[in-house]
Design a protein that fits this description.
This protein has 9 helices and 16 strands. The protein has 490 residues and is of the alpha/beta class.
Amino acid sequence: MPAALPEREETMTKRPNIIYIMADDMGYGDVGCYGATKIPTPNMDRLASEGMRFTDAHSSSSVCTPSRYSALTGRYCWRTSRKSGVGGGFSLPLIDPARMTVASMLKGLGYGTAAVGKWHVGLDWQFKSGLEPQTQRRRIEELPWEDTGVVDYERPFLGGPTALGFDSFFGIAGSLDMPPYCFLENDRTFGIPSVEKDPYNAQQKKGWMTPGWKDEEVDRAFAAKAVEFIEGHQRRRPDAPFFLYLTPSAPHRPCMPPDEFKGASQAGPRGDMVCVVDWVVGQVEAAVERLGLKDDTLIILTSDNGARPCDVDGNDYGHKSCGDLRGFKTDIWDGGHRVPFIVRWPNRVAPNSVCNQAICLGDLMETCADVVGLDLPDNVAEDSFSYLPALLGDLDEEERVRDHVVHHSVAGMFGLRQGAWKLCFGLGSGGSTAPRSEEPAPGGPLGQLYDMEADLAETRNQWLERRDVVRDMTARMREHIDRGRTRETG
């Protein structure tokens, strides 16, 4: 990042601590303040009662790797080599080390920075001697699981959080259903994965684990490390603000709640894992209050994408994980990418307020820059917009944070939201919900167009009726792709 960034004259005298909590696969309907009745979420509900709840917040993708890339960089992931799908535990880094991240931006201003939890945007693992590193790197995701033993866990990995602006990192490489099954600390594994995973829980891929590894302990460890960071920062640097990027593994599969959370919800093991997320939020919130930091701390709570429809056994227990939205995780429909989004900032954000503005997880970087009074260079955060005016109630009734959001599904189907209209450039879900894809019928629509204000459930395709809207939005999407950015320059 540049040695110095231009600070605005009106920069607030005391910059706030910023805590960004992003759950894994927590849907729009999973939280009490968004309508959940079978899952108790008192801590998240309290955050909403003391702050602002957004109703139209979106991940840039309906799966996790690309949405996390966007949150950290302010740039759509489809502008990188990853146009679809997700990475694995051994995927190469997606974030160029020369690219500014939220963490490197804030670190440059004196913030203490920490990442705790699931990473899943790639690491550059090192390999045992005698092997050809470049060949192995190209092949590693295609290798049989036994051959992942070529990784040299005694050596540090490259391209991780500590190379991208975080002072410290404690977490896991990918999701809790993929190897390696071990904690990572800073740029090394915490222990050596040396035995085969045992037991394999629902839908977990084969691989190595560190001896004694327990899936159900992962999020408790993350909560402890998050609190440890906050407390340690206050001891060492009490006059400096901090940025905590906290990304629990829950409620993503395999849905293995600790014993004390089993039966905490009426929505099965997955619902119990949402309760785990709520507990993590409560642990962090309690530490902030115990240290007298509440008034100086901006907390943002969200999810990386939409939810799965049910537990791995197929039972949804009568719970709507994505509320009344159509589709689920992986899909281009709103259930895939509309997410809960809650912000608390005492004395700045009005308590118990609701914002209907369309925003995107990728807006974190421009918003943080706005909060700390920085003007970002044109070559960073190309798709990020500040929602600070919405938080502070400074928008006129007709003003918008952004007038468009680009989405894409796991299969790479694009969608564009502009005002009330949503255009999907293909037929079907583009994900896991049937029909995944459809061939256009003779004379039929080539894609999908929905009025999201009148038809939130996306039931009436107006592609043929409103060809003018299709034409204009298609041209707009092409412009977004060709320009390489959506945020205006200068």
